[in-house]
């Protein structure tokens, strides 16, 4: 049993052999106590004085032989355990490699079927999932590093054929490298999609703001008096300031578009969208200038009306005074 060359063909078989070997070691340990007791009893016969049933030398030789056999058995058991433990390390290494390959295949299939989303919300969801996967990748990388270290230790022992170990390590390293490359490419695609949909969302927000602002600046309400027109002019100046602040965002659209991935920036729709935003901004800015001029004109008109009204009131007062004035009869009052 102890000189058997059967070291198992997979991890479960080696574990089973180790359990059986443990039972055998326990049996050897039990027999050791029995042999030691028998040897002690036998040596007493070699120490008898007078009548001796057997030559003392024969007894000593037999005891030494049995003791030597027992020690050899113990050495064989130790050697067998070491071989089985080494075999367990080997098959544990191969099992870890197979688990790593299975995990890599699973992630490769997931990455192969993954899309980059249809809108900003779906891209953000996929990006969060990809971050979780990167966390898994980091944990698995640490485990794989430990497994590779075990493989190097097995090679250093030189107890097994290095070919199978080296080949398996090479295969897993290549697959892992490919997985990291695919993961990196997918991350780049997600980032490109995220940039595109963020650009689209920002452009849509800008268009919505410009449309709302256009409705404001194209209003035909110029007030009904000096006070209301002044209030409208103050509001309009604030709108003009906002329009001017948005000029940089509109001008930056071309630069942002140039930074997008070719598949996104070369699309006809997105290029048309940028042109539409630029044209709409130009119209808003132009109409805003016109409205400001119209409000100023309205202000001038209402101020003129106010001054005319003041003149009319003064004229009315003087007319009433002149109409009511009576020519006095005395010289002093006439002169006054």
UniProtKB/TrEMBL annotation:
SUPFAM superfamilies for this protein: Spectrin repeat (SSF46966)
Gene Ontology molecular function: any one: actin binding
Q: Which InterPro entries match?
A: Spectrin/alpha-actinin, Spectrin_repeat
Please state the gene responsible for encoding this protein.
Answer: Sptbn4
| Keyword Repeat on entry | yes
Query: What is the protein name for this chain?
Result: SPTN4 protein
For this protein's source organism, the top of the classification is: Eukaryota, Metazoa, Chordata, Craniata, Vertebrata
- Keywords for this protein: Actin-binding, Repeat
Q: Which residues form a coiled coil?
A: none
